[in-house]
What we know:
By secondary structure, this protein is an alpha+beta fold. It contains two helices and 27 strands. It has helices at 78-121, 129-179; strands spanning 8-9, 11-17, 22-32, 35-42, 54-59, 62-72, 184-193, 196-206, 209-220, 224-235, 242-250, 278-279, 313-315, 320-322, 329-346, 355-361, 371-377, 380-387, 395-402, 406-418, 425-437, 443-450, 459-464, 469-470, 476-483, 488-499, 503-504.
Amino acid sequence: MHAPETPHPTRVRAVTLYEDRAEVTRAVTLSAPAGTAWMRLSGVTPLVDDRSLRVAVTSGEGRVHATRVERRLPEVPDALGEALRDANDAVQTARRAVDRESAELAQLDALDQAWAAALQASPKDLVQEEVSTGWSSGHAALGAAGRAVLARLTEARQELARTTEARDAAAHALAAASGRREVLAEVAVQLEAQGGELTLELRYRTPCASWRPEHLARLRPGGELELTTFACAWQATQEDDWRDVALSFSTARPGRAASAPELEDDVLYVRPRQERTITVEARDEQVQSAVLGQGSRAVSDMPGVDDGGQPLEWRAPGARTLPADGQPLRVELERRTLEAQVQTVAVPELATAPHLRAQGTLRGATPLLAGPVRLAREQSVVGRGRLDFVGVGESFTLGFGPEGAVSVRREVERERRTVPVIGTQKLTRKVTVYLSNLGEGAQTLEVRERAPVSELEQVSVEVQAPGWTHDPRDGFLTRTVELGPRGHETLTFSVLLSASSKVDLGSFA
């Protein structure tokens, strides 16, 4: 049984966006004949995942027996081909007119040349009024006929140029319609009904639609931190705009199949110990944690939406319209206010000015997803940053730009010597930090420095930092400094590195 020629248009009711696709729910109300018949439904994208298509009867008496997605190229309009044929006929007519007038003009040129040859061959002393008048009138008639033919030839050539341009435009339109046709998709549904109105619901998944979270962190006076989470969504599925639909945003990954990891043998080899020289090189290691000093958690670089391993879903308030041009749509998901501990932190090794840091503990029912964050102090945006996944009850830290009232300067002195006879190498680094308060108000800031941490028995590190708090595991040194108005402060610490003569310090020195 064949499907009817005119498909039934469907309308989008709800969309659930994932990190790499979308699940679209459409609905249509139609009049189904009694018995079994094929019905065609339009509006779906040609990118639809055929395996995810589900069609169900939600209202009325009927049952769905089979479904399939039909794709086809739209037919080239007959009007374009007919226009090209008419343009070709007009070009041929204009070309024949040009050839006809050209031939007539050539004939008149030949007669004019014959007149001139006959005039030269006539006797010079033949002077008769009747003869000269006949010669003159004949030459004038040839001239008048030539001018008329030349005017008609000019018009014929202009008509040929115009028809040729029209023919080229018609050929270009036909080629564009034939070569760049978008694939059309329709859903064919085999229905068994008692006759009457039925409401069908289509549900399918499609690529070229996704979402990502982003945040706005606003620091207010008194240490109040306002966090606003947005969903940034877009779609270019070749469907029309999704107008007035219920949007949902999910962190689930329906396209990934769960599977156990593959196990491989870990073979150990034994070889004799050999005397060798140890080469020491400095290596910077980034400490990845939710907040320094309060436990650590590995941060995985997720290619999509990092939800901490637990699928989450948000619903947009009210109906939304997601355009089909690929432009982003931002939807506010939630807003929360937290109490934060605000500090001015100086890292002299990296910057000559301290920065403002807010540290808080996440409260609420949902975590903060990893994503970009815009940073603002009250009504002024001060920069952009990156926020990693933060679970409920977990601490996190955000920076809110430099504090220009305090200037920082850092100097490093190095001294290297070798102990006679035993050859022990001694490397001393003395770091001096100069702090200056350029403002009229008092400033309290935390200064952060770092010292090397040895991973070898042959190399020992001794840190001499009176007044500093030293973390020997990560090598960080911290110190809180009170600066009065226009005040100055000088901080120092030393690092002594000792290594045996068999150790090559390399570029570390």
